[in-house]
Amino acid sequence: MTEKFQWMQEQYNELSEAVSQPEIIADTARWQRLLKEHAQLEPAVQAWQRYQQLLTQQTEAEEMLNDPELAPMAQTELHELTRRRADMEQELRLLLLPKDPNDERNVVMEIRAGAGGEEACLARIFCACIPAMPSGTGIAWKWCRSTKRSWAA
Asked: For 25-38, what is each residue's pLDDT tens digit?
């Protein structure tokens, strides 16, 4: 895991340097591709940097355990840092999962109620409730939502 994040950090630094060079900026297609790659690496690199800071803080807290006056405070801090470290390691593992190529694509979903009968009535009620369903999930996943209505003649 460490090697992968170190590689990402190196790539991120190289891309940061490359996107500011005038000859690359002049080639718009290449510049946009590099900016997109830079943006894709950024969350993982920032998480890795936070994890490295956390490890440094944990080492400092362990060193404070040797001082009798600071030991109780260091023990409390060490317990909190250990908990945060486990959370950060889980976040880092998730960031290593491969991205789905369809994540950047849009989706159009059409839902229609049927015509006639008891099932159609239930379907109309269900269709009336649908617009509110994805709102909570959509907000959490930062989805954009627009409703297009067409009335059949």
From this structure: 888 899 899 999 99
